[in-house]
Amino acid sequence: MRAGEHNPAVAIELLPFWRVLLEHRRWFLVFTLAAFALRLIFYFRFPHVTGDSLIYGDIAKNWLDHGIFGLTHAEGIGPTWIRLPGYPAFLALCFKLFGYEHYHAVLLVQIVIDVAGCFVIADLARRTVSPRAAQFAFALAALCPFTANYTVAPLAETLSIFFVAVALDGAVAGFMAIAGGSAAWKAWLTCGMALSAGIQLRPDGGILLAAIGLFLLWRMGTQPGQRVRLLGAGSLLLTMAIVPIVPWTLRNWREFHRFEPLAPRYASDPDEFVPTGFDRWMRTWIVDYVSTEEVYWQVPGADVDLALLPSRAFDSDQEQQQTQALFQDYARSHLVGEELNQRFDQLGRARIRRNPGRYYLWLPALRIADMWLRPRTEMLPLNSRWWEYADDTRGSILATLWGGLNLLFLMAALMGVLRGPRPCYLAMMLLFVLLRSAFLGTLENPEPRYTLECYPVVLLLAGAWISGYKCRRRSSP
Length: 477
Fold this sequence. Notes:
About 65% of the residues lie in helices and about 0% in strands. The protein is an all-alpha fold. Helix 5 packs across helix 20 and helix 8 packs antiparallel against helix 9.
């Protein structure tokens, strides 16, 4: 490994990515074919159109046919703001090119985008570690089943992961150029465009902007000679992130007479009642995805089996009876109205007062752990209660193996932090992972897919650690 490959101050000595591809073309060709093969297996075996997919698709069709960014209701088409325009715009483009509701074409496009993202992750590894790390990071990204799985669902995850990788690669290129004495506006422009696209796809896309921005401020404080160029880079990133959401914000003000630059916290339209009390009560006990499926997604509209509530949902027999009474009233209409919502809210607030540490610390930490560590089976025909071997032994074994594979990826990434070789600008990337994880801990619907945007960092760190294996063996006594 050349010294210049691990020192941002001499970034000009980096081996160009095209040279890495040429020198190791057989490696990249084999794993590119493997990447497409894996994703096509998911495409033919496990395509998954969800309720969210249909919402995105309905918005896209109404946007194309009627010029209305809205949803179809019994009384007609009404404007909405429950989704940002990024993914509906992507679907609208695909529908225009390949035919309306041609979701299989959408999935194939997402497969291509995801494989392209593998090359971006490899380039990030090349910049921050070495060409050898680029090879292994590419192989891991190509064979990662968890990101590949989401290419066959019409959801924003694949595009979000891709733009996270592009933004990180652009930011690293920009920081290296500034350290070398130039501004590298092309790199910062690329980073800004990727950040903007990520924010247009999901409102939590702004977390990466915050991480890069905080790292920029830290660099300005520790590198006085670079302040002017860093200030210029930060101004460009902020402008690129804010300007594209101005039309969306103005549209929301014109349609709904409210200031909303992103999307509402609970993905609800202005005239839609939000049971915030019920959501607060959920956050006083929920920690796992299975409760999201069995309780949170069932309300409103379906029965809830109270036997599925875990013991941590009650602090006493009296509270258990109170909760049962609430759900008995809910079962009459399968709706949570204002009166019932207020009662859930009172119950939730009482639980918070009784144990604030549980609500603000321990439960968010457990939700974060569940989103990172549980078997990522939500897109597969496997039981979410993977630990109940007696009910479905084969499915539970497969889910356990799937979860073990997820742990291997995470353990390899952890070893990349502890043992190295550590990537340049690792602090910026870890800050993004920590900020995003902390945000996810505040949600009342822990879903493993929300951590996938962090996987470019996971794959980079894992590839870096594997790339240093031979060096560690040579240096060991």
